[in-house]
Amino acid sequence: MAPPLPSQRSPSPSQPSGRSEVSDLKLQLRQLAGSRAPGADDSKRDLFKRVISYMTVGIDVSSAFSEMVMCSATSDIVLKKMCYLYVGNYARCNPDLALLTINFLQKDCRDEDPMIRGLALRSLCSLRVPNLVEYLVAPLAAGLKDGSPYVRTVAAMGVLKLYHISAATCFDSDFPATLKSLMLSDPDAQVVANCLHALQEIWNLEANNPEEASREREALLSKLVIFYLLNRIKEFNEWAQCLVLEIVSKYIPADSNEIFDIMNLLEDRLQHANGAVVLATIKVFLHLTMSMTDVHQQVYERIKAPLLTLVGSGSSEQSYAVLSHLHLLVMRAPMLFSTDYKHFYCQFSEPSYVKKLKLEMLTAIANESNTYEIVTELCEYAGNVDVPIARESIRAVGKIALQQYDVNAIVDRLLQFLEMEKDYVTAETLVLVKDLLRKYPQWSHDCIAVVGNISSKNVQEPKAKAAHIWMLGEYSQDMLDAPYILESLVENWDDEHAPEVRLHLLTAVMKCFFRRPPETQKALGAALAAGLADSHQDVHDRALFYYRLLQYDVSVAERVVNPPKQAVSVFADTQSSEIKDRIFDEFNTLSVVYQKPSYMFTDKEHRGPFEFSEELGNLSLGAESADNAVPAQRYEENDLLLSTSEKEENGGPPNNGSPVSAYSAPSDYYGSSISVNSQTQPETAISIPGLSAYTSPATLAIDDLLGLGVPSAPAPPTLKLNPKAVLDPGTFQRKWGQLAISLSQECSMSPQGIAALTAPQALIRHMQGHSIQCIASGGQSPNFKFFFFAQKLDGLSAFFLVECIINSSSGKTQIKVKADDGSASEAFSAMFQSALSKFGAP
Fold this sequence. Notes:
Shape: globular
Helix content: 40-55%
Largest sheet: 5 strands, antiparallel
Strand order of the largest sheet: 1-5-4-3-2
Radius of gyration: 36 Å
Number of helices: 37
Distance between the termini: 85 Å
Number of strands: 5
């Protein structure tokens, strides 16, 4: 059989077909190097373009370095630019080749054309080769005194580049003093701006002379410099104006007259077409008048119009950035924007992130004078095709109702949402109606009349179902079918996957039982039995609590579950005032757009749970000494892939003999039987149905009343863990990347556990006592992150991997479980949460 014919692909014009083409380029460049024939520059341009295109796509054409340098001897500025681009690219990674460029760059720095002088000086400073620093000093000194503004502009930035290469050379040549003199005397505004930027960065980075650096930073903020820059601010471009305004915002005026002088000088900057300049000017106004409470309203009124104008002009992204700043001001002074509410109406063409921000602002500025118009507009959004915006609009109506005194019309609007027969509208409305009833109990009759017509089968979202169940329990005396609806929900207990729903169902059945005992007796018994057998720790504990409360005293149980309630006056804010103040201090930065202070997304130790990456290498053990830590296992230094701050040594097997508290769950996941010693009834041994024989008459009476019976409790999980499990970081990392998340849950941590979590090591030691090892941890209060692992004790070497994120301020814990044996994930998660719930217990 004949061999296949070679492919007949034509070479791409942007890529060489082989080494021969690069060699041909070198040959052609060498032939044109000294040529002054007509058309030679055009031929060089074509060759230079080919070289640059190869270099751009990543092909190594450094072998043509000498030929390119030889061809740079021309007055054609286009050729000069391409040659400088080529030289700057290869000189950094090939310092030896950079020596070849010094002569012709220094020669070009003395060229008659200022454009060539500037380009050559910029290229010379961009080589950034420490060995060539001595060749930069003379051209930079000449450039700072050059008659061309362009060359002086380049030279000012060249001084900054020199500082980054060799700070000592920069100071020895007295360049900072030259820049300062040039900044205060140069007639060109761009030169002044570049000098200011270079000086600011140099003195902010200077660490060898902290006293001098501090003195010079103060000099940049002196009255002489500030007013000099303000008087020339109209000459600067937008970038330079923002730089000047940022420095002015840090200036501390001597008195109020000086403050008003600065504001008068910047008055026209509020009408600037560039949004960045306007925001920077507003920041100056706000910072200058921070302590002048008597002029706050005037300042807000003055800056309001430019911001509202900027919102309606430009792209959606720019509008969002401006809206974020406007949102910050609205939250601080909503009354000043109450008459401008129509500016925050949503437009059909706006993206959802802009609409969401506008809805928050409409909620904030609503008051007695504009509530009707705002609520009417928000109700129109409830039928929006954009479901998230429709949800947000319904929430906005509810928030307005919670902050107003006259809510008659708003409640009617909310109840009308329940008649729209849209699942998401019904779900959001139910949650809001629950909050309304907590604050305005007098509206219960009207609300319950409508809520009673909603079928529980039509409510699927966990939060909405929990709200519906809460109303069934709280107002069961007014809803005829409440016991029967709750009973049907209890019968479908296993179909409720959300722990929140099951928790509310337990409480609602208890409340209904005390109001309508005969109709709810059976449902309560079934709910308690199902709750005691539930794998979720919180549900299990609440069912056990209710059961033992009923055993102790039914009247006490009624006072606990159905106490006299007072209307909720204020709902908790999701963001602390301290954080809001920090964001306000960082006006005109990304902090306003992210709605969080900069330390939350810049400093590693302050990052929240959302900032943790999946890369384990970013985590490390805390700074606590290895002597005080209980290690999981011993690693050799070469085997440790995680970035740990210390090497731990094995101090023996984990301690599994931790003391058992007097109050424990009825079924222990480690397989041991538990009993409870009651302080009020020491002579009675109380146990849980299905686990042991009943000896207490009170227990038998309650079980008979609720229909629990002696048998029927399921056996406790049989999962057992290997107390000496070992897993190296490399294997952990590989498994974490390969396995899918088999379980993801959120639970609450006990107050005792939060108080005990002062450092990651405290929890690490506790979990090791439960055969759960920690392989990496990170963060500090209030945000901690841990990676745990455990191994089944069945000889199959099945591992469980856990990512645990704890926020000690909210008490919330997020758990992700990955497992070799996915069928055991539920049991392991219950065991993990059980161990976590005992952390900090006495």
